[in-house]
Design brief:
Elements: H1 11-23, H2 28-38, H3 42-55, H4 62-78
C-alpha cells in the first residue's frame, strides 16, 4: 500500500469532490484513484493508437495520426466539447 499524501486545492474543488464521492458511496481518495486510473497519459494514448492501427493493418504514420486527431476533434465538437 502506498503512503498517503496531500493535494492542495481550493475549498470549492474539495467540497465538490466530497459531494461526488458521497453520491457514489465512496471516499475522496477512492474517487481520485478511479478518476486517475481511467484517464490515459499522452504516452498511453499514443501506444494504444499504434496498437489499434496495427490491428487494422495500417501503418501508423504522421498522416494517420493527424487524421485521427481531426476525427476526434469533430466528434468532440458534435458532443459540445464533452469528450476530451
Amino acid at each position: 500500500m502506498s503512503r498517503p499524501t496531500s493535494i492542495k486545492t481550493s475549498e470549492e474543488v474539495r467540497d465538490r469532490l466530497r459531494v461526488l464521492a458521497a453520491e457514489r458511496g465512496t471516499t475522496i481518495t477512492e474517487l481520485l484513484e478511479e478518476l486517475a486510473s481511467r484517464e490515459l497519459t499522452d504516452a498511453e494514448r499514443q501506444r494504444r493508437a499504434v496498437e489499434a492501427a496495427a490491428e487494422l493493418g495500417v501503418d501508423y504514420s504522421e498522416q494517420v495520426q493527424h487524421a485521427g486527431q481531426d476525427a476526434w476533434a469533430k466528434i468532440r465538437a458534435h458532443q459540445g466539447g464533452a469528450a476530451a
